[in-house]
Design brief:
Layout lengths: L8 E5 L4 H12 L3 E5 L9 H8 L4 E4 L13 H22 L2 E7 L22 H16 L4 E6 L2 E2 L6 H9 L5 E4 L3 E2 L2 E2 H16 L6 E4 L6 E2 H11 L7 E4 L19 H5 L8 H8 L3 H7 L6
Parallel strand pairs: 1-2, 1-3, 3-4, 4-5, 5-10, 6-9, 7-12
Antiparallel strand pairs: 8-11
Helix pairs in contact: 1-6, 2-3, 3-4, 5-7, 5-10
């Protein structure tokens, strides 16, 4: 039985992923009835299956996505099928059933060449195939659900339930004395559980009529670089931050170009009566005490 009886039943797609698992945990703790659907449970490219899945649901949180950024460079059509066409299928089903849709997107839809935080209405301009595929999904939601669609862009996500930068840095602490980490890409490291809490709050605000449909930026406040994030993770873990050495993106050439500047503004949260996410340092300090991260430290804290 939901504490908020008006909240109804929620559907979380991509429920097996890092963010999807956290959203389900937050909903459970809020005593809101929810169903999680992973890839084995729901083919989001199948219109009939999607229509059946959203029947009787009040809010859909779409965490399903093609997330292999480099792989998308040689498989853009496949990436767009999941990140674009399937999102249109989901938006169409939600529009027909009068269901609110919260769709998780990415900073990669932006060009990454700014010097000030990107506002929600900033001009898009993806620099890689992954970003282009995600932009197709955004456009489907805003076109088909202008009032009941919520696009939440996130970036630099890390958490307990999947591979991520913070976990990798902590694992490598036991294997290497020093690490070279990129210091010329700027962004907002965001804890997936903190984002999950905000997605649920946004859904509640939407059901109460407080939050307007549109684009929201679901990233931590503040900003840093990948090197800054690695050093702070080490500092909080009792490791020497100086073991992390700065380097440039040129030292790590990858198939997909990464945006140099992924700092986002958070104006629309205030318009919905909600606080933006906390500063990235505060999020990291809370996250790193969780068992999934703390367990990674045990072999390396003596270095």
């Amino acid at each position: 039985m939901s504490t908020d009886s008006w909240a109804g039943r929620w559907l979380v797609t991509g429920a097996g992923g890092m963010l999807g698992q956290d959203v389900l945990t937050v909903l459970k703790r809020a005593r809101i009835e929810a169903v999680g659907a992973g890839r084995a449970d729901l083919d989001i490219t199948d219109p009939a299956a999607v229509r059946a899945a959203v029947e009787g649901v009040t809010v859909v949180v779409n965490c399903a996505a093609w997330t292999d950024v480099d792989g998308a460079e040689t498989a853009e059509e496949a990436a767009t099928a999941v990140n674009g066409a399937a999102v249109r299928v989901l938006a169409e089903a939600c529009a027909a059933a009068h269901v609110r849709l919260i769709h998780v997107s990415t900073d990669y839809v932006l060009p990454g060449d700014a010097t000030e935080p990107y506002r929600e209405d900033a001009e898009t301009g993806p620099v890689n195939a992954y970003g282009r595929s995600k932009l197709v999904g955004e456009q489907a939601v805003t076109e088909l659900l202008p009032q009941d669609g919520y696009v939440v862009r996130t970036a630099w996500l890390y958490g307990e339930h999947g591979p991520n930068f913070v976990a990798t840095m902590l694992k490598l602490a036991a294997q290497r004395d020093t690490l070279d980490v990129v210091d010329d890409q700027h962004g907002q490291p965001t804890w997936s559980y903190a984002l999950a809490r905000h997605l649920v709050e946004l859904g509640r605000a939407a059901l109460k009529g407080w939050a307007m449909g549109g684009i929201y930026h679901g990233t931590a406040s503040g900003r840093t670089t990948w090197m800054g994030l690695a050093r702070e993770a080490y500092r909080l873990s009792g490791l020497d931050p100086e073991r992390i050495r700065p380097t440039s993106s040129d030292a790590f050439v990858r198939p997909a170009v990464r945006p140099a500047f992924s700092v986002l503004a958070h104006d629309n949260w205030e318009a919905a009566g909600l606080e933006p996410l906390a500063d990235w340092r505060a999020q990291l300090a809370e996250a790193i005490t969780r068992p999934a991260f703390a367990d990674l430290l045990r072999p390396s804290v003596t270095r």
